[in-house]
Amino acid sequence: MTSNSRQLIIGFSIWPTGRWGSAWRLPEAFNGGTVDPTFLAQTIRTAERGLLDYYFIGNNVSSNPASAHANGNEVFKVEGFSLGGYAAAITSKIGIVVTVNSSFTDPFNTARAIATLDHLSQGRAILNIVTGFDGSPAAKNFSLDQHYATTQKYALATEYVEALRKLWDSWESDWLIDDKEGGRFLDPSKGHRINHEGEFFQIQGPLNVPRPPQGHIPIIHAGTSEESFEFGAKYADIRFSPYRSPEWNDAYYKDLHARLAKHGRGPNEQKIVNGVTFFVGATEREARDKFRQVQQLVTEEYTPKAVSDFTGVDLSGVRDTERLLDVVDLGKIPEKAWVIQRALDAYGDEHISLRDFFHFLANNPNNQPPVVGSGKTVANWIEENFQNRAFDGVKIFPAYSRYSLEAFVDLVIPELQHKGIFRKEYAESTVRERWGLPVPPNQYATAANAEQQEAAA
Q1: Exposed/middle/buried for 182, CB within 10 Å: 0-12, 13-18, 19+?
Q2: What does each C-alpha distance from 432 to 58, 127, 182, 238, 337 come to in angstroms?
């Protein structure tokens, strides 16, 4: 792979009990990993062994014990900066993504924590900014009666990021004097009060941590609203995207990139990454068999109504063993056909039954498709979509723990390397260098230099 070639981005999202609904019930699944330091260390080190771009730590600040639809991931989420610091301490190259909810956190604390992580990891910190969904019960954990409406929460998020950038810039890089004989430790003129006065935040500054090695921490964002699209176009270095089909994602990719120019950004300044749940086997048959085994572990009882409601076809008198395509005409439900096609592709069989499809729906695939097959098959799927610009990369969601990540690293990564679209070593030190993102100039240093030049003239 030449230095000028387009590079595939691959991340791993830690889900200690897996992402695919019923997979936690497999005999070999390990479900005690949420707060198990040994397990978490294994996943972190395996992701770095696979030369992945980043280790993604999600966030959920809701707390409802009744929300365990399928497994513990619906109830428990460990605090991200603590796990991020742990990841930084036992790795040296992989990026570390921490997620914060701008609706429920303070810019000063976030700027301080992520800048610290960037220093301790030597330029490997990444910030995923979420805003929470409308009606989120998490609001009641933060002294709010209800969550902000979409327009307000994105107005808040916009001010939040602007405040973060000011705080990251509030110390110039040459702050340290270290004059032992003269007794001058630092130059206080290199620290700047940001004096931010906004609708949501009033922050004096400066930050009490030096400027991060990356200057501004790379930002990730996802969302489906128009406000989210514009926020991402303005600030996100990586934009998470759903996946439906090569054609749908090609149009989605082009739409997202077309928005960048409005904010003075070029198409190379943002990467589009899709979340995918991979079922990888040493052979095609092994992978398909494992996928079928997982589907059969669904605990919900089959009901014709669930499939009828989805397809719009009355199936109340049809046996659950009937072939799905014999009773449902995809041509009559084009808006739903992509989900059914996704199920057919995952099973690898057009003869799946109504019960098979019910199991697929019960596992709630949403916008993260299952991709099932051998290492070569999975690598071919990634290559085709990458080359056709359906996406710039993938974020791995493990179907279950522990094997999913290990299988991807051992079986898929070598195939991608052989194709010349994925790295064989970590050549760059920081995430910004790896993604070709320049370090932004310090806005306060730039202003100070301009004033000095004006005075000299």
Answers
A1: exposed
A2: 21, 12, 37, 12, 40
The band of 222, judged by pLDDT with boundaries at 50, 70 and 90, is very high
CA-CA distances (angstroms) from residue 225 to 149, 232, 243, 256, 257?
12, 11, 16, 12, 16
pLDDT digits (tens, 9 = 90+) for 349-375: 999 999 999 999 998 766 678 999 999
Token readout for 58 is 């999600």
**Mean pLDDT, range 29-45, rounded to an integer:** 94
Cα(118)–Cα(114) distance, integer angstroms: 6
Contact 173/166 with Cβ under 8 angstroms?
no
Q: Is 398 left (phi over 0), alpha (psi -120 to 50) or beta?
A: beta
How many residues does the structure list for the chain?
A: 457
From residue 431, alpha-carbon distances to 46, 111, 126, 377, 419 in Å are: 18, 17, 8, 29, 23
Report the DSSP beta bridge partners of residue 186.
176
pLDDT in tens, 64-98: 666 655 555 667 778 999 999 999 999 999 999 99
The residue type of 439 is V
Residue 331, token pair as written in the block: 């041509």
**Residue 126, SS3 per DSSP:** strand
| Nearest by Cα to 212 from 128, 126, 123 | 123
Q: Report the pLDDT value the prediction gives residue 258, as an integer from 0 to 100.
A: 95
Cα-trace Rg, the chain: 24
